[in-house]
Design brief:
This protein has two domains: about 45 residues, no CATH class; about 50 residues, no CATH class. The protein is about 20% helix and about 25% strand. The protein contains two helices and six strands, in the order ββαββαββ. The strands form two sheets. Strands 3-4-6-5 form a four-stranded antiparallel beta sheet, with helices on one face. It has a two-stranded antiparallel sheet with strand order 1-2. It is elongated and about 65 Å long.
């Protein structure tokens, strides 16, 4: 992520400018949807990138969120913008853990 002319000044070489490796996901509206940065010595974890991309696609425009360590086959968190009755009508059976933490099956 450094321009090539940085390496041509002061005798610097790429090893002197250890950059981070960054993955950007932009939406069709040209807004940044995801940014993950890795140090130069750590490889990118492609499964995490796919998981995050899948979560963005599913939750885009829907009152849903993904919990920590979510796997695509697991339940989604229902946003607080829906009352329980609305959530049941939209997603079927819901699992209410707490009044603010409700889960629904992955929409098809």
């Amino acid at each position: 992520m450094l321009p090539i002319d940085v390496y041509l000044t002061d005798g610097r070489i790429p090893a002197h400018s250890a950059t981070v490796r960054t993955v950007f996901v932009n939406g069709p509206d040209k807004k940044l949807r995801l940014s993950i940065s890795y140090p130069m010595i750590v490889g990118r974890y492609f499964a995490e990138i796919l998981r995050a991309l899948y979560a963005i696609l599913i939750t885009d425009g829907a009152p849903l969120a993904t919990p920590a360590n979510w796997i695509p086959s697991q339940d989604m968190i229902i946003g607080l913008v829906l009352y329980d009755e609305q959530a049941k009508a939209k997603y079927g059976e819901i699992d209410v853990k707490l009044h603010y933490l409700r889960f629904a099956k992955l929409p098809k």
